Amino acid sequence: MIVAISAVMAFVVMRNFDEVAVAGPDYVVFISRSDGTSGADRVAQMVTAFAHEHTTNVGRLAADAHEPESRRHVYLAVGDEAAPSTALLTHGFPNFSRDAKTDMHPYTAMPDIGPTGYYLVYGPEGTANELLQEFQTLGFGGRVDPTFSWGHAFDYFGRGALLWCVLIVALIAMVTVGVGVILNAKAYGIQRLQGASWITVFGRDLLQLAKFCPGPLAVLALLNAGLLYLYNGLHQAMTYAMVTGGFLAFFVTVALASHLLALFLLYRSEILGAIKGEISADWGLTAAYGVRFTAAGLALAIGLAVVGDLVAYQNNRADLAAWSTRDQSYYMEIGGYGQAETRDVEKALGGWIRTLDGQDQVIVARYLPLMPRPGFHESSQRLDVLLVNDAYLGSNELVDVNGRRFTFTDADRAAVRILLPQRMRAKAAQITDRVTARILGSPARGPGRTPPPVRVSELRDGQRAFTYESWFNGYPLVMDDPVVVVVSGRSNVIRDEDYAAYATTGEIVFLDPDAVAASLRATGQQRYVLGFYLKAQQAADRHRSVSREFTMQLFNLVCALVVLLGTAVCVSIVYGRKNAQVIFVKHISGWSHLSIFWRVVLVEAGMAAFLVGYAWRSSASHLAELTDPRLLPKEYFEDAAVRLEPIAAVAVALLGLTLVLGALAYTHSRMVKAHSSSLA
Fold first, then answer.
1. How many Å apart are CA 612 and CA 603, to the nearest integer?
2. Cα-based distances in Å from 462 to 174, 318, 406
3. What is the DSSP string of 470-487?
4. Kind plus residue range of the DSSP H or E element containing 395
5. Which of 80, 99, 499, 638 has the largest count of CB atoms under 10 Å?
6. How far apart are the C-alpha atoms of 53 and 159, rounded to whole Å?
7. Is 371 a residue whose pLDDT tops 70?
8. pTM here?
9. How confident is the model over 414-432, as a mean pLDDT?
10. How far apart are alpha carbons 210 and 214 in whole angstroms?
11. CA distance 28 to 142
């Protein structure tokens, strides 16, 4: 079992790694700062010369302009013709994951992009450090990182569902081995009677295991190789085998350590009782409950994670459906310039976006949660405001109280229009003051210029506004009855720097990327734009990631339930064998099942109460945070997930109690039959 699970976990690790990083280079030089003294042409000359002088290959990593989540490009400066990475230019990159695509190109084919970014070094650490020094000579700053390290492994794959899976499988190995040793207590007792030490017995067990394993291992290896061939043609097969071996070595170590420890503790029991299959020492029950408490805690944690992932999955699926009804819209990723250039670049790009706004080629959608102000009782609640532009009204239908769609005229472009839902009519003055103070707090107007006029209109209640996933995807894609504030570039409310800032967070939506890219090239600043990415594709990639996490957590939950069952069987066997004589006497005396095992039932009930109480308290605390008007709200789906936590805890507690009662009933009937036959 652990061989198959190790292969599956290695597949997940390799797939995830291939989708976030490029396999092959030894080190990555990340250039993040520039003093602006050197341009892209000078950097290209330096990199090419460096590769030849050091007989090494250096690649420039760049995301694809249309598929940034699943496709990237490596522009390779070749200094070592015999290196394996050089052959990739001819044969292509061996992607492990089907959802990742890496295209290899010669360095001379690199487009006009900024010099800051990731440089892949196919050589030792010293070569990577020398390359960083060359960049520093040109006025750049950055750092050198290994492509793969244990720290990176923990960051990318040591959290979430995969970590739960590792812990659960380790517990399964411990429980399986422990139950096996307990069930063979009689055989081990006979070997003890013959004078065999626990080390000798352990060695004999390993020899028997070694005779059994080669055949099943060979079959599993061939099956795994065949499946991997069908998946990706055995790409990166050796690395995959090494990762599989690492997981397998960990689980085998846990199993062997559990076997050795169980044998050592078993040898502390009396020989006569061991020959009868009984366990008289208290260590057995203590160890069994130690593992059971751990398993119950993991089952609860995984159950809560499944609830959260289920809600996230449902919300992401709804978002994906909402995106399918929209026209194609793109967000822009900005980069490729140093800190010294930030102000000039952002002002220039912001001015360019302002021009596009005036031409209705971009949509502005920015979520602004207005927090309560101290001392104002009427403003005690958070106010949800959606800041948009005229193009937003052209693509999204909002109607007034008479059912007429809001439109705009040239005269409206210089004004700030506040659209209030009908239900806010009684507090229109206070809300308008708050919105005006927030929106017009720092307008981009010069000396002597007056603020733009403010016009207030009413929205029909019950309308939903599409947010285009503004504010770092932290709020719903569709909002119910928000306050909508309409501004345009002519109103000077949004500064040039703000336009650039909104673009970096996906709050500027581009409707025609080809036309926009042509306009950008005309300004000579295309090197500072990494690409235009389809927002719907971003939502689809996120949904795929959430689906994978949810599937993995479901697998973990099934494994956790298996562990709960195993620990229930272990507790029932240990308790039954430790108290075999007393249980049999009580049984023939007419005691009920619960009265015989009341101690176990009491401990299980206490554990169940602790799990439910912990989940209830945690849920109440999180709900208090989510409903506190003084705090910025978190992800909206957390509210639903947190409310379900106590229900998940009750389910885990009841299931654990049911499993242990069933295991006690089964082992009790077996034990009674065995004692009855021995007395006959």
1. 14
2. 56, 19, 16
3. TTTTTS-SEEES-EEEE-
4. helix 390-395
5. 499
6. 42
7. no
8. 0.72
9. 87
10. 7
11. 10
